[in-house]
Amino acid sequence: MCYSIVDDGAISISRCGGFMSDQAENVTTEAKPDRQPRLWTSVKILSFGWGFFTVLFVIPWFGPLSLLVLVPWGITLLFIVVWHYAMRFVYHKSERGPGSIGTTVWLAPAVLISIVILAVPAWDSLPRNRFEQLVVSPIPPTVQNIRVGGQWALLCEYTVLYFEIAPEDFPKLLAPHEYQKGSPGRLDDLAEKYLDIHLRDLEPFDVFEVDLTTEQKESCGTFCTQAIIANKERTKVLFFYMYEG
Q: TM spans, by residue (predicted)?
């Protein structure tokens, strides 16, 4: 009940239902489970992953002005938006909020995508993994001190591996393809800035080349070649791979 004093001193009695109703509505609203969108949290997680990917892998290989990352970023963002509204619809029909498990499921795609886009290139870039992909697998047991360099462009890739090997294992490097004795001058013309520093350490050296354009036509694009450059003792090797799509 509510009491109020009017001008002539009489007491007026009335119900305060409106006030009580508003108060109850506020309490009810506060008691409702939190179903607010988690889209921005997912976007922040995804942006963090793509940002690191761009800085660690895209810029070093493609340069700071590369826009290649925008396409996969847009696709994953679209997926996250669709997932967000699907989860929102599910919990909109539920009397209970998502809770800790539901929130984890809600944010899981953004977290998993971020982990994948960082872990896969990092794993692929490990020197021993790169060796097995390009040179020979399994790695000869005497191979050591593998170093990887090179550069990617929009349709080109230069990869250089520098390593040491025992002379008896050197033939295993030539086994996967039919290498031919080549000319170091041609290699200098193709990628001078990637080879010069290491070539000085190998002099005098022999060059073994193979053109993979015909042999691996489906995966090579318009031009694909690789070479093995070794010192006379066959203990130091520079492996050069070039792809042009």
A: 45-63, 69-91, 103-123
* Residue environment code for 29-51, b if the CB has 16+ CB neighbours within 10 A, otherwise e: eeeeeeeeebbeebeebbeebbe
Among the residue ranges 30-34, 51-55, 217-221, the one predicted with the least confidence is 30-34
* Cα–Cα distances in angstroms (integers) from residue 241 to residues 85, 92, 194, 234, in the given order: 46, 55, 11, 19
CB 165 within 8 A of CB 192: no
DSSP 221: B
Torsion angle of the four alpha carbons 215, 163, 136, 152, in this order, in degrees rounded to the nearest 10: -50
Position 33 pLDDT exceeds 70 = no
Burial class from Cβ neighbours inside 10 Å (0-12, 13-18, 19+) for residue 150 reads middle
**Nearest by Cα to 228 from 188, 158, 181:** 181
To the nearest 10°, the Cα dihedral for 202, 207, 213, 219? -30
CB half-sphere exposure, 92, CA atoms < 13 A? 8
The confidence score (pLDDT) of residue 237 equals: 92
* Residue 2 contacts residue 40 (beta carbons within 8 Å): no
Beta bridge partners of 228: 208, 239
Residue 113's pLDDT is 94
- Alpha carbon separation from 213 to 28, 95, 195 (Å, rounded): 71, 62, 22
Cα–Cα distance measured from residue 49 to residue 80, given in angstroms and rounded to the nearest whole number? 13
Residue 231: which residues within 8 A CB-CB, separation 6 or more? 202, 203, 204, 205
The amino acid occupying position 105 is: V
What's the whole-model pTM score? 0.62
